[in-house]
Specification:
CATH topology of the largest domain: Rossmann fold
Helix content: 40-55%
Order of helices and strands: HEHEHEHEHHEHEHEHEHHEHEHEHEHH
Bound molecules: iron/sulfur cluster
CATH superfamily of the largest domain: NadA-like
Structural class: alpha/beta
CATH architecture of the largest domain: 3-Layer(aba) Sandwich
Radius of gyration: 19 Å
Strand content: 15-25%
């Protein structure tokens, strides 16, 4: 089948099965182009809850489909490839978190949404990169916080809030490597660009300090924050420090803009596992179903709902 035939068949099946396609900002361009909604993991899960559909094809990684299943227990959530995992979510297991909690019994647990349902069920508050500071600030000052699994986001939140935070030693392999790039050299090369840096990046804490000390064009943003910045900016040149998939959405948003990836090698192989052929098979065979058992979903829903009450 040609790509055009595959896409036509996807649209036909989507209609027949009353399905929606959700795609993360890091997905392949052709996947973003057929999606009903493109966004970050939480935004997509919120869309999943809102849309009037029987089937949700989640083009992203496994923990995201789980989150959609937790928020929308009555919809059938499909992921086109079960191997689409996440190195960051894998860097903390529920057992490890339980041990950490028992060593720090009075602490409040704040976990990034990039976690499994089991880890969420052991968590007090979930957060995303766009609301992590706000979530931590909402917790009473005298409480110690256990923050996981991302150490870079944890360090960023700790420096922004000055709170007593213990940080888990986890990271995303894609964003961690961005920290190894010579940032100053890139700034010399693109002196007129806005530098948009995701807080999961290995360089985020030093970038944040740079932006405060030198008043330069470095901004720390979640992926949705980057989209908003580019939409509203008078500048038309941007260096983007996150997974390269987002450049497709940014270019569509600002065809007049010049977008330079901080590193062309910032590619998440898990996100790129989702192809048009697999989306077609997902719709055709209603595979692969991601269903979080209700007992677990009930516990995992609590930290997500607490987060949604705050933002
Ligand atoms: S880019 Fe990193 S955090 Fe995002 S899905 Fe891939 S491995 Fe996970």
């Amino acid at each position: 089948m040609t790509n055009k035939e595959i896409v036509d068949e996807i649209y036909r099946l989507k209609k027949e099965k009353n399905a929606v396609i959700l795609a993360h900002n890091y997905e392949l361009p052709e996947i973003q182009d057929i999606a009903d909604f493109v966004g970050d993991s939480l935004g997509l899960s919120q869309q999943a809850a809102k849309v009037d559909a029987d089937v949700i094809v989640f083009c992203g990684v496994h923990f995201m489909a789980e989150t959609a299943s937790i928020i929308s227990p009555n919809k059938k959530v499909l992921i086109p490839d079960l191997n689409a995992g996440c190195s960051l979510a894998d860097s903390m297991t529920a057992d490890e978190l339980r041990k950490w909690k028992s060593a720090n019994p009075n602490a409040v647990v704040v976990s990034y949404v990039n976690t499994t349902a089991e880890v969420k069920a052991e968590t007090d508050y979930c957060c995303t990169s766009s609301n992590a500071v706000k979530i931590v600030e909402s917790i009473p000052q005298d409480k110690q916080i256990l923050f996981g699994p991302d150490k870079f986001l944890g360090r960023y939140v700790k420096s922004m809030t000055g709170r007593d935070i213990k940080i888990w030693d986890g990271a995303c392999h894609v964003h961690e490597k961005i920290g190894e790039i010579d940032f100053d050299k890139k700034m010399e090369e693109f002196p007129n660009s806005d530098f948009l840096v995701h807080p999961e990046c290995g360089c985020s804490t030093s970038c944040m300090l740079k932006s405060e000390v030198f008043d330069c064009n470095i901004k720390i943003y979640s992926t949705e924050g980057m989209i908003e910045h580019v939409k509203n900016s008078d500048n038309n040149e941007f260096v983007i420090a996150t997974e390269v998939g987002i450049l497709h959405r940014l270019k569509k948003l600002r065809p007049d803009g010049k977008f330079v990836p901080m590193s062309e090698n910032s590619v998440c192989e898990y996100m790129k596992m989702i192809t048009l052929e697999k989306v077609l098979d997902a719709l055709k065979y209603e595979q692969f179903v991601v269903k979080v058992p209700e007992e677990l979903a009930k516990k995992a829903r609590i930290p997500i709902e607490r987060m949604l009450e705050i933002i």
